[in-house]
């Protein structure tokens, strides 16, 4: 059962709640309500199918932010046989908003890098709601150096509203840290696989998003700015965020169609939070397959293909100065 339903999930939640009440009544009072329970279960199944087969960009954004959705730590511990975390950037301090370390996926030893939003008020405050500071990205680059030194593939989990825009972060070089992280990924001679597991917004996502293969969960989103931020800039009105979400083409289907995402990973019905183990297994299988394919390529070919990948994304047209 959904514990914290979104607005469009509430009709499903109410029916599931009624089914649970009938089961408890049947158990405590000895009343046979199996026919009524069966009827409601069929109704829930049909309503769930109708609801999740017709989601717009705004509803998918809400799902990507669901409080019960699995985060980076959840997936690491579900798909990795072992995980040794590294902390600190060796310049300022550790940033809990960004997780990095070495793990084992099947027979492949890999370096994990990912944003962590945190669960509960205290943990979310500690992890700054998944918005890394410059020291977070510098920690990520430490992890990248380890990957390069030992020839380990890199797996990044993208899930952030964006890099933290506070005064302290700017004073410590937020823009430089993001740029340096992107630059390092551009030339690192090891396989790099990204996976957008939730909300991937702005430079906070791009900093660990320059990859050889980009995987994306069905109900995740990816954009250069949040719909709320876009609406504030274009219309000076955050209530226009649903329209901005549609215009930005933030869904996995749109991004896969545009060639920005290489592989779309189907989620359990209702979202990854309904069966995190099944979702983790799907991610694990995709990672093993892609690591195997990329590891067979020579280092120079790997880097060249990565360069070509980003040079060919999008469309442009050249014209003369006079015509402009």
Explain the overall architecture.
The N and C termini lie far apart (58 Å). It is built from 14 helices and eight strands. Strand 2 and strand 3 (108-115) form a beta hairpin. It is α/β, with parallel strands linked by helices. The chain is globular and about 70 Å long.
Short characterization:
The protein has helices spanning 10-29, 34-52, 57-64, 72-79, 120-126, 134-150, 167-171, 174-187, 202-206, 227-234, 241-248, 252-257, 276-295, 299-311; strands at residues 83-86, 98-105, 108-115, 154-160, 192-201, 213-217, 221-223, 263-265.
Describe the protein's topology.
Blueprint: H1 10-29, H2 34-52, H3 57-64, H4 72-79, E1 83-86, E2 98-105, E3 108-115, H5 120-126, H6 134-150, E4 154-160, H7 167-171, H8 174-187, E5 192-201, H9 202-206, E6 213-217, E7 221-223, H10 227-234, H11 241-248, H12 252-257, E8 263-265, H13 276-295, H14 299-311
Parallel strand pairs: 3-4, 4-5, 5-6, 5-7, 6-8
Antiparallel strand pairs: 1-2, 2-3
Helix pairs in contact: 1-2, 4-13, 6-8, 10-11
Structural features:
14 helices, 2 domains, alpha/beta, 8 strands, 324 residues, eight-stranded mixed beta sheet, 2-enoyl-CoA Hydratase, Chain A, domain 1
């Amino acid at each position: 059962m959904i514990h914290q339903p979104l607005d469009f999930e509430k009709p499903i939640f109410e029916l599931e709640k009624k089914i649970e009440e009938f089961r408890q009544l049947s158990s405590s009072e000895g009343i046979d309500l199996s026919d009524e329970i069966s009827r409601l279960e069929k109704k829930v199944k049909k309503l769930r199918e109708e609801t999740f087969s017709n989601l717009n960009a705004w509803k998918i954004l809400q799902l990507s932010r669901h409080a019960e959705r699995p985060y980076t730590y959840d997936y690491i511990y579900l798909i990795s046989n072992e995980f040794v975390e590294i902390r600190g950037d060796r310049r300022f301090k550790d940033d809990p908003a960004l997780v990095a370390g070495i793990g084992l996926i099947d027979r492949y030893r890999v370096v994990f890098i990912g944003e962590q939003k945190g669960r509960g008020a205290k943990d979310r405050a500690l992890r700054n709601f998944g918005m890394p500071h410059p020291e977070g990205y510098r920690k990520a680059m430490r992890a990248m150096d380890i990957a390069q030194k030992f020839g380990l593939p890199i797996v990044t989990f993208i899930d952030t509203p964006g890099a933290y825009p506070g005064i302290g972060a700017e004073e410590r070089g937020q823009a430089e840290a993001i740029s340096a992280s992107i630059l390092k990924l551009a030339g690192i001679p090891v396989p790099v696989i990204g996976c957008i597991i939730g909300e991937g917004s702005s430079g906070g996502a791009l900093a660990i998003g320059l990859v050889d293969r980009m995987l994306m969960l069905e109900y995740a989103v990816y954009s250069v700015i949040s719909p709320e931020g876009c609406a504030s800039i274009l219309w000076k009105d955050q209530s226009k965020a649903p329209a901005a979400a549609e215009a930005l083409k933030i869904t996995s289907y749109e991004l896969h169609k545009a060639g920005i995402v290489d592989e779309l990973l189907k989620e359990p019905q209702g979202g990854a939070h309904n069966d995190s183990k099944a979702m983790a297994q799907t991610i694990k299988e995709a990672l093993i397959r892609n690591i195997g394919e990329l590891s067979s390529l020579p280092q120079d070919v790997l880097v060249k293909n990565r360069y070509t990948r980003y040079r060919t994304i999008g469309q442009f047209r050249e014209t003369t100065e006079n015509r402009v």
